[in-house]
Each structure stands twice: as C-alpha cells, then as structure tokens.
C-alpha cells in the first residue's frame, strides 16, 4: 500500500513539472532576468486547449511606469510568425526555468515580429494584495504609452529595439546638435470586445464610444455556448471573458489567465478600463479562430459559463475570484414603430459602465429597427426600479429628431448616471425598462403669437391668453389659456407673461430659481427628473416683482422684504434667490418650439 502511494505521488510530480505543461508555483523577479534567457509562454490559439510558444528575453526596461520594470521578449512558435502579437493574448503567462516572470501585456502595431512587453508578476501580485485590503480605487492615467528618452536604458536593449524597427527619433530634435532621444510606442495589447446581437451600423457608432475608455476591437460572435465550465482546466494560459452585457445583446472583453491560486485569479497584465474596485462577471471563453491582420491580429472567441467575478481593474492586472458572483441589472427595451421589437438583456451594475452600456444597447435597438436619417418623432417612457423605493423612478417625454443620430438617448442616460453617482446615498438599480414609440412625422408646432384680453389688470383678475401655434405643414391652431393675476401683486407694477417650450422654460428657471438645480436630498434629485418639463407642453409663466428664495431645495416665494434682508445677511449657506412666478402647463398633441413674451400693467388704485 505504501509503494502504491509513492508511485501515485511520483506520477503527480511528473505531471506537474514535465516540459511546458508545468504549472509554475515559483516566480522570478526582474533582477534575476537577463538578456538572452529563453523560456515559454502559454495561451489558447484554438478552442480551449492551452498551447506553448517560445520566448527569448531581449532586455529589461527599467522604471517603465509607476517604478515598475517592463520585460521585453520575442515570441515564436504556433501562429505567431504569421500573426505577430494577437489581441486577446493579454495575460498569457511567461515562464523562465519553470518560474513565472509575468504576463504578455504590451506590444506594437504593424510590427512583423511578435515582440512584446511583459508585466512583471510582482506588479500583478500587488493587485491581489490591494483586493485583499479592499483599498480605494487608484485613478487611471490618461495615457499608457511610454514616450520618453531611452538614453538612460541599457544600450544593448536600445540597439535591439532599433534593429527591429521599434524605435523612432523625436522630430523635435532633428535640427538640434544635442543627442536625439528615442521614442518607444509600446502600448497595452488591444482587448477584443466580442459582441453579439448588434448590427453593423450599431458597431460603427459605438466603436468611438468604447475607444474613449479602453483599447477594444469589436467583432460579432454567436454568444455563449452550452458546455459546462471545467474549472480544473481553467488555469494559467486559459482564455477568460469579462462579461459586461448578456442576453439578446451581449459584449465580453477577452483576455488570458496569468495566475491562479485556489480561487484567486490574475489576468490581462494591464487594465480593461482601470476603474479600480469593480464587480464584473468572469466567464470561461473558447477561441474559434485567429484573425490575422497586419494591423492587429485578433482572437475570435465567445464567452462560456460564468464562473466568478472580477473585483479589481488596475494598471498592472485585473483580479478576480472563482465562485463569487455579481448581480447584474435586468433591462428591457421595447421599440414600437415601423417594427415592434423587444430586447431583454442584463448589464453590469457600475456607476461608469452602466450608463454607457445602456446607451450602447438602446442605440443599437433604435438603429437596428428604425431609419437613421429624416424626420422622427419619439415618445420615451423610462422606468428605473431603485432598491428601497416602492415606486420606480418614471421619466416620460417626447422628442423630435431630423438628423442621423438619436439625441433623445441622452435623456435616458442622464438620470441613470445621476442616480448611480449621486452624493446622497448609494443607489442600487434593480431593473430598467424603456418603451420607445416612434413615428416618421414632423410633429413640431411653433409658438407664433400670443394675445391677451386686457393689458391693464387688477390683483386677482382673470386674464385670457390666446396662443397661436403654427404646426408644420398645417394651418394655425389657437389655444386659449386663462390665468389669474397674483393677489399680492404690487399696484403700479408690471407683470411679465412668458409663453414658451420646455427648453426655454428650463433656461429661464436656471436664472430665476437656480436652487432647483442643486437638490439637497436623494428624493429631491428624483423629483427633479420626474417633474421635468414635457416637450409637448406649452409652458406659461407669470412673473411679478415679488421676490423669494430657495432654501435646501425647497421654494419660499413672496417673502416679506424684511425676511429677505435677514437671509441675505445670514452666515449660513443653502439659500439662493427665487423670482416669484406662477407656472401653468398645457399639454398638446405637438412638440412645442419657441417663445413669446408680453407685459401686463397693474392698475394703481391710489
């Protein structure tokens, strides 16, 4: 029995340490690495099978960024001679003497040789330490490209880079007698964003959107496969997917696992977006093929089963845990127009990503079903369920667009952004539902003229206003509106009557009651969205000379002058001026545009 145990133990050791299939339990620091050392890397070129490729160290770039070094390597083997560096290789572990030195993470576009930068494993392990301490996010840098003089680097390393055509000289010094510094355009390898459910027009429009927050290339995919996850084979070199949308629409960032210790995972060797503490679904992935390109070759892959979550997105790596799962936000988008289409999908719950992803999904739904150029009238109804509230936040409005873009989308994204980033309390969104009703008509009516029954009025008197509208390609329409002169208006003063659309009303409100735009509580913020001006309403404002104030988001109109004087001398903030006005809103069948003003004069009974 003892001999059998010895044989089994010996077989395990052989399996662990044999050839390139070895799992490197030890690590090697950059101080131990020298030019010319050879080793191997591990990644998936096809399916889920991890393959090896050969590695030769070209040198070390000292103090690359944030006082970390960068290991330069040349990769050969497999398809690399044909493809060069492949987008999706980010995180591929690299070993020397069966010791893990780091992850393939940086490279050059248009380079005929597969020469890459390797993020040292020491820098990546720091991310696990951050995760364990749950420290606050480190702000992302603006540019991950290192463009500085290489004069301080090892001359042999510089010579090798020059021989591969990977350096160029700073043109600023081309007419100078001083020594010309070399510029090194070494950037993070592109992260393929694999999407499904999006049409070509949508992908074209959202590419710049994601270009602002990370290095992504967009490709269509068939979506999740049905095979169960094999966690035993999920090891360094395996393809990994970070899901951000799933369902009828899906999007996943594809990379490679660098390190696994139990349920702790390190991958990519560079950030996805570098948002620090995060909570994103982590899934297995299958590589279907490699799309070779002179610019950037890419792994065409699709996500598999969700097996955990990504908890850190830092400069040198992403970190995650197997067996922990994140809650996503169920979303439903109904398009009612030339086609009636419904999309059901989920997006990650993140104050930065959620608004962008909802915008991406809604734009796709609109562009896939409706025309992009020409007259479009759209009615939007948005329900946002927020944890702890019985009723959803409901925003309803109508818009008109004649251009190639859907400007109303901003009105969907803004409340989601404000809720997730509000200063009052942590807001957890439980679900989002959007209904968009679209017609191919110009439904605009201009406020052409207003006429009052009497320009000389008394306090409390009823005044009739005739509003003349000019709908597009139709005859004039007349809207009668009755208003009452305020009882406390000053005899001998004047009253201003403003008839306008929603946009003009908002601009006037910003000057007359700026405190409305500085809510002092979470519920006031919600009230600001829900009670916003409707674009199909005529807004009638009656302004008098009485003054008031807004204090902590609440209005106190028509205050005595003595009280206003006291508040103006107060040593406490929170009070802003409020011009006294009465507001009346008249719903119409049109989208209202324009503004007209007339003055009324109050009789002086004295």
Secondary structure layout plus pairing:
Layout: H1 2-17, E1 26-27, E2 38-46, E3 49-65, E4 68-76, H2 80-83, E5 86-87, E6 93-96, E7 99-107, E8 115-120, H3 121-133, H4 155-163, E9 168-169, E10 182-183, E11 187-188, E12 191-196, H5 200-211, E13 216-220, E14 239-247, E15 250-261, E16 264-267, E17 276-291, E18 297-313, E19 318-322, E20 328-336, E21 340-348, H6 353-369, E22 376-386, E23 393-401, H7 409-420, E24 429-439, E25 444-452, E26 456-457, E27 462-471, E28 477-484, E29 494-500, H8 502-512, H9 522-530, E30 537-551, E31 554-556, H10 561-568, E32 575-587, E33 591-593, E34 595-602
Parallel strand pairs: 1-7, 5-18, 12-13, 20-24, 25-33, 26-34
Antiparallel strand pairs: 2-3, 2-6, 3-4, 4-8, 6-7, 7-8, 7-11, 9-10, 12-15, 14-15, 14-17, 14-21, 15-16, 16-19, 17-18, 18-19, 20-21, 22-23, 22-24, 25-27, 27-28, 29-30, 29-34, 30-31, 30-32
Could you characterize the architecture of this molecule?
The protein is built from 10 helices and 34 strands. It is α+β, with helices and mostly antiparallel strands. It folds into 4 domains: 143 residues, Trypsin-like serine proteases (Thrombin, subunit H, Beta Barrel); 137 residues, Thrombin, subunit H (Beta Barrel), CATH 2.40.10; 111 residues, no CATH class; 159 residues, no CATH class. Helix 5 runs antiparallel to helix 6 and helix 6 packs antiparallel against helix 7. Strands 2-3-4-8-7-6 form a 6-stranded antiparallel beta barrel. Strand 20 and strand 21 form a beta hairpin. The radius of gyration is 32 Å and the shape is elongated.
């Amino acid at each position: 029995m003892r001999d059998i145990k010895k044989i089994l133990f010996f077989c395990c050791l052989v399996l662990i340490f044999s050839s390139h299939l070895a799992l490197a339990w030890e690590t090697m620091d950059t101080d131990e690495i020298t030019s010319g050392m050879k080793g191997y890397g591990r990644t998936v070129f096809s399916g889920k099978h991890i393959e090896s490729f050969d590695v030769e160290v070209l040198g070390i770039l000292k103090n690359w960024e944030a006082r970390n070094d960068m290991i330069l390597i040349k990769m050969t083997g497999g398809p690399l001679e044909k493809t060069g560096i492949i987008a999706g290789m980010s995180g591929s572990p690299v070993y020397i003497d069966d010791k893990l030195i780091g992850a393939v993470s940086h490279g050059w576009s248009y380079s005929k040789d597969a020469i890459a930068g390797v993020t040292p494993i020491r820098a990546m392990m720091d991310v696990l330490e951050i995760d364990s301490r749950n420290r606050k996010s480190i702000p992302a840098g603006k540019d991950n490209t290192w463009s500085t003089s290489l004069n301080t680097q090892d001359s042999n390393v510089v010579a090798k880079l020059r021989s591969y055509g990977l350096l160029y000289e700073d043109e600023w010094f081309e007419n100078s007698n001083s020594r010309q510094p070399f510029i090194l355009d070494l950037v993070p390898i592109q992260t393929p964003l694999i999407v499904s459910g999006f049409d070509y027009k949508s992908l074209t429009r959202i590419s710049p959107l994601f270009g602002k927050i990370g290095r992504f290339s967009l490709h269509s995919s068939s979506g999740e496969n049905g095979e169960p996850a094999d966690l035993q084979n999920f090891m360094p070199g395996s393809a990994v997917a970070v899901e951000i949308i799933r369902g009828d629409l899906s999007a996943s960032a594809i990379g490679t696992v660098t390190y696994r210790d139990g349920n702790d995972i390190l991958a990519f060797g560079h950030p996805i977006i570098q948002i620090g503490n995060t909570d994103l679904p982590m899934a297995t992935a299958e590589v279907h093929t490699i799309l070779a390109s002179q610019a950037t070759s890419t792994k065409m892959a699709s996500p598999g089963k969700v097996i955990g979550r990504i908890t850190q997105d830092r400069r040198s790596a992403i970190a995650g845990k197997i067996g922990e799962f994140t809650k996503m936000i169920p979303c439903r988008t109904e398009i009612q127009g030339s086609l009636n289409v419904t999309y059901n999908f989920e997006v990650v719950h993140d104050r930065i990503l959620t608004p962008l992803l909802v915008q991406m999904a809604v734009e796709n739904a609109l562009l896939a079903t409706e025309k992009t150029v020409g007259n479009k009238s759209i009615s939007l109804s948005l329900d946002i369920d927020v944890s702890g509230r019985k009723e959803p936040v409901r925003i309803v409005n109508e818009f008109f667009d004649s251009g190639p873009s859907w400007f109303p989308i901003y009105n969907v994204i803004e409340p989601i952004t404000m809720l997730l980033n509000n200063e009052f309390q942590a807001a957890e969104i439980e679900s989002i539902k959007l209904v968009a009703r679209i017609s191919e008509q110009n439904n605009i009516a201009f406020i052409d003229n207003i006429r009052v029954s009497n320009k000389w009025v008394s306090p409390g008197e009823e005044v009739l206003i005739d509003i003349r509208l000019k709908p597009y390609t139709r005859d004039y329409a007349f809207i009668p509106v009755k208003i009452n002169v305020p009882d406390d208006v000053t005899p001998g003063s004047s009253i201003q009557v403003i008839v306008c659309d929603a946009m003009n009303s908002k601009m006037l409100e910003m000057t007359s009651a700026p405190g409305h735009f500085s809510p002092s509580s979470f519920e006031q913020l919600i009230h600001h969205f829900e009670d916003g001006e409707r674009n199909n309403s005529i807004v009638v404002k009656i302004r008098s000379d009485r003054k008031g104030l807004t204090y902590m988001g609440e209005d106190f109109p028509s205050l005595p002058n003595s009280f206003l004087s006291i508040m103006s001398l107060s040593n406490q903030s929170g009070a802003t001026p409020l011009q006294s006005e009465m507001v009346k809103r008249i719903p119409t069948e049109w989208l209202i545009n324009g503004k007209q003003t007339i003055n009324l004069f109050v009789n002086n009974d004295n």
